[in-house]
């Protein structure tokens, strides 16, 4: 267990102005079982240390003892909020290693459902972030939108949250009968709802006071730490794996990348809201241009990728999720390592929080959008 | 904290800020929801109230839902469709299926043959993660995941289902109020 | 008392019963009837507080597109009773290192402070007020301050870092906002010319005006200070769940916690009642006095009490509305607002109100405009005088806003202008499509 190295300088706490506060693993706002040890001077944070590992389930070790198609349901449990993109990174890694030719219809359906997944993840982020800062109503409204998406997932995949969406080579089932109707209805209703959230939050002076200038990270520091996703784009860098190394059908889609300026919480909030709009745009294009055809490629009976090590990454809602696979030619992988975006993003927490007040720590954890399932695996 | 560089506000913006228009707009939206919901009692998506009053109103479960497992039987002969091929047990990532087969003598075209039939089928739903790999592996569409999601039992042993429970399914509790 | 025999019959019966018991008429009139009044008021307030929680849950649910309590009783109406029973039967848990006696007494002090105030609030004209002390307003402000003591004691006696922090923050916040609350009330007093709460309502009744029209700034300042005083959103950081779990009442459970809860809701009702009394006309409503003129005195009192309760509910709705819409302020921003915005605003309001009263009196004395009617029940103005005063009220509001901006020119939050859409949409050309080619993964690494 990681030894947390924060201690006060004085003998007794009554003498020192510093106080060590433990935002323990059980806390309403740490977005999972995260332990944050704060060293406070009054209410200002002067040092911070994170203690993770409370949700470690040994997924990478489990993967060493399973065959390739069996690993996909475990990968949903990494970032359990956005399970579809986790499944996608695994499946795409294996497909690219094996050189499978996934049909175009599968690629388009993957794009549509992964973008719906991105909207669902961002909606949950907005809900919990607004809840932490105090606007409780936005939580319920955002979850209502997310419910629509989860219903689509249930009808398509059979499960709402941990979907086991993709199979190696494509998908199991084609789009269900009302898929087109449901997706179009969602796409038409969604902008109105986003405007409602903006009405309550974006110009609200209380929201601005709580988020502008809080948790600033510069572009250089962000690159040095290895941030990705909206956390990086809020600081000014236009890096999106969907654009730089397109996968699925993204190369055919016309969308923009929202990029912030100051690298504070408010910019990341605006970036994520805008990303939801761009996702809606992608879904609209993909559902309009959905090609016909099969949805799965032919697979050998036992999946045995050639020996070697490979890395593939995609743009998950939280950042760049990658999968490093070492194969020894057998039906079980030799080693699988996940590059979780939240794990890398969490490293920025210390730098972002020092100098701010305790109330801001909660807002900053919310804006980094971390999921402990990914961090601890 | 670094200063935020913003353009100078116009007079209209100053007036809006004085009269707290940003707060008023948010308040107006919640008032609209409040009034709308007070006059709308349907739990229909998109209208005032979005609540589904479970357990009085049963939810609409999709046909593909990964719920409780069931072993299907031939509708005419009422014999199990399972051919004891063990593919579902091999496909399961969690090792929660146990297929026990036995040999029986059958007469096929006058000659006695040994045929493998299903003896006992053990499914541990407490280990199951409802990934449906077993359903996909089954060649005869015997093993199927149904729409039943209310799987709670009062004991650990109640989670381990045998062939009889899998074939008959479980009774759902009907709530009347 | 006259007319309405149906209503009087049980009262006369009780009277005759008490006389038969041998009590002197003074005892009956000054001891027994007030006790009955107190009993009625306490019951009504307790029921109101309990159903206030129910209303909050229903209203917040409707705002959030859901239904709220529905299972216990029709439409969930028995929910407060179910909650009360549950809390009563919970284990009485006192932390081991806690200071037992203080831990025991703190909730009772809070409830007492909140409930004592109801003895002077004028629910209606004649017998709908328990006692009409002639320093009623002063009593209200001072007794509600005792509630702060309860918070500090609760935070301290729990012997836990979180509770202590929460308790100290709550009490510092309440003390700061009490100053602006008290100062905001002075503006209204200049018209009523009496501290007695019934006298204030009589002042508004005889002038046929609600003081909110003369004092829009004062009303706003009072409301905002009152919301902060009650630790309600958007000023509820000390008890916000996401920060310190529950602030000063983290370690309380069961019945003691429910006492704090009741004290908070009762304090909300108190602030709403004072706002209604002082600014919204109390039990006065135009044309209700006609009932009195028609001789139906008791009906007049009851209708006036209903008017008061309706106005109180409207202000209470504002509490719920604000809580479920707005995010909450951070603690230093909260204290900023109290000290740098509301207290200067209240002071400017007092000075400006005094100035406007002076203007009205000067206009009257100098025979320019007949503005003052008479000054027996507060300051009564003629129509022209009312128009002058209302205009001065609006001017005062704008002036207060302007001067506050001047005072806070350099503060960071004031410089936050709205509509900062600083994000830009970048169109980046994308790489090779993965749809039409089977590109292998990126080059395998050297092991």
Which fold does the CATH topology of chain A refer to?
Answer: Cytochrome-c3 Hydrogenase, chain B
Strand order of the largest sheet of chain B: 2-3-5
Q: Which second-level CATH architecture of the largest domain in chain B applies?
A: 2-Layer Sandwich
Class by alpha and beta content of chain A: alpha+beta
- What is the H/E order of chain A? EEEHHHHHHHHHHEHEEEHHHH
- Radius of gyration of chain B, taken over Cα atoms and rounded to an integer in Å: 29 Å
Q: Helicity level of chain A, as a percent range?
A: 40-55%
CATH superfamily assignment of chain A? Cytochrome-c3 Hydrogenase, chain B
Helical coverage of chain B, percent range: 10-25%
Report the total helices of chain B.
5
Regions of chain B with pLDDT < 50 over 5+ consecutive residues? none
Q: Would you give the CATH topology of the largest domain in chain B?
A: Alpha-Beta Plaits
How far apart, in Å, are the first and last alpha carbons of chain B? 56 Å
Notes on the protein architecture:
The complex is a heterotrimer of chains A (377), B (177) and C (447). Chain A is an alpha+beta fold and 377 residues long. Chain A has one domain (67-376): Cytochrome-c3 Hydrogenase, chain B (Orthogonal Bundle). Chain A is built from 15 helices and 7 strands. A 3-stranded antiparallel beta sheet of chain A has the order 1-2-3. A 3-stranded antiparallel beta sheet of chain A has the order 5-6-7. In chain A, β5 and β6 (319-327) form a beta hairpin. The longest helix of chain A has 30 residues, at 104-133. The model of chain A has no long low-confidence stretch (mean pLDDT 87). With 177 residues, chain B is α+β, with helices and mostly antiparallel strands. Chain B has 2 domains: 1-51; 69-168, Alpha-Beta Plaits (2-Layer Sandwich), CATH 3.30.70. Chain B is built from 5 helices and 5 strands; from the N terminus they run ααβαββαββα. In chain B, β2 (97-108) and β3 (111-124) form a beta hairpin. Chain B is elongated. The two termini of chain B are 56 Å apart. The relative contact order of chain B is 0.16. The mean pLDDT of chain B is 81. With 447 residues, chain C is an all-alpha fold. Chain C folds into 2 domains: 29-89, no CATH class; 93-409, no CATH class. Chain C is built from 15 helices and 3 strands. Chain C has helices at 5-20, 25-63, 79-88, 100-116, 136-157, 161-192, 197-207, 211-214, 216-229, 241-244, 255-278, 289-293, 297-325, 331-365, 383-407, and strands at residues 372-374, 380-381, 424-426. Chain C has a two-stranded antiparallel sheet with strand order 1-2. In chain C, β1 (372-374) and β2 (380-381) form a beta hairpin. In chain C, α2 packs parallel to α13, α5 runs antiparallel to α6 and α14 runs antiparallel to α15. Chain C is globular, with a radius of gyration of 27 Å. The termini of chain C are far apart. At the A-C interface, α3, α4, α5, α7 and α10 of A face α10, α14 and β3 of C. β4 (257-259) of chain A pairs antiparallel with β3 (424-426) of chain C, so a sheet runs across the interface.
